[in-house]
Amino acid sequence: MKNNKLYMPADALKRREDFDLWYEDGSHALSFKGAWSAESDKVAMFGRLGGENGHIKPDSKTLAYYLRLERYEYAFHTIRLFEQYYVEGMKWDVFGSLEQAPFEFVNEETGQKGGRVRLTDFRDKGPCYEIMVKNVVDLRIAAMSVVSMAIKEEFKGKSEGLRNPNATRLQKVAQWLKPEKGITYEELKKERGW
């Protein structure tokens, strides 16, 4: 059996408690443990045998999350909350959100789909997000990305906003020196007319 799918409870973050992810056959795959009280809390990922093999840690302004998987590190960026995300290190663009599942992980260079997430009923666990990837090696980083997205959406954290590729050096320095980086959820609602 090819283990390229994981299932995460749809209400995992709403319950504010540790949760598990399962393989398609119902066996335990990963566990996520943390305080779940604020967006700035560190979350640890444990494997089937109980050893910690990764963690999710937000930066100082909670704009990006650093995803540490064994000896590798990735970054999860929120471009626009509930709209667009980016997984640095995998070069995945994500257009969509958990509230609007299904969505896909798309390689920004090749345009190939690396995986997808959809909402489905899973065995006796109830509604779950099915995280599926083409390459089994990418499954854990995809799961960490989905958990990061869930944290960001549950706590309605800041978005980084779209970067201007045509910005002058002076504009880039001014943006970098700006004390309040990021777009709050309230600002985003006002801008989008939600």
Describe this structure as you would to a colleague.
The chain is α+β, with helices and mostly antiparallel strands. The protein has one domain: Porin, CATH 2.40.160. The chain contains three helices and twelve strands; from the N terminus they run E-E-E-E-E-E-E-E-E-E-E-E-H-H-H. The chain has a twelve-stranded antiparallel beta sheet, with helices on one face. Strand 10 (103-107) and strand 11 (113-122) form a beta hairpin. The longest helix has 16 residues, at 139-154. It starts with a strand and ends with a helix. The relative contact order is 0.18.
Which key phrases capture this entry?
194 residues; alpha+beta; Porin; 3 helices; 12 strands; 17% helix
Could you say which structural class the secondary elements and strand pairing correspond to?
Answer: alpha+beta
What is the percentage of strand-forming residues?
35-45%
Estimate the global geometry from the Cα principal axes: globular
The CATH topology is Porin
Low-confidence segments, given as residue ranges, are none
Number of domains: 1
The biggest sheet, with number of strands, parallel, antiparallel or mixed sense and barrel status, is: 12 strands, antiparallel
